[in-house]
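Action item from last meeting closed. Structure (103 res):
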């Protein structure tokens, strides 16, 4: 695994990082929108509540447990979607330019 990492790092240039930056910013926004939709779909199917919106920390009608479970689920979904999107876009960038945009 260390050898693969060294090969990737050898192909990374400063220009690749600069060229990838705008794509990464747009990708973060798009992945956040996708993650929000995924979370909403999962939340409405799994949690039987009157509202379509998840419980927020300052809404007194929900218990701390409900708020924390929602926050953990939402954070996990956002992290997974963002990681998948970033990794996929980095691989696509590498295929197009021949350079890995990361570290």
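Sequence:
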């Amino acid at each position: 695994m260390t050898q693969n990492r060294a090969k990737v790092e050898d192909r990374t240039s400063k220009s690749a990082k600069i060229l990838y930056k705008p794509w990464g910013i747009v990708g973060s926004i798009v992945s956040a929108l996708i993650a929000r939709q995924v979370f909403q779909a999962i939340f409405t199917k799994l949690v039987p509540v009157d509202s379509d919106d998840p419980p927020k920390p300052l809404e007194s009608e929900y218990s701390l447990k409900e708020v924390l479970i929602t926050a953990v689920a939402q954070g996990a979904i956002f992290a997974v979607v963002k990681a998948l999107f970033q990794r996929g876009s980095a691989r696509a960038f590498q295929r197009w330019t021949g350079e890995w945009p990361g570290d």
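Note appended to the action item: The two ends are 15 Å apart (CA to CA).
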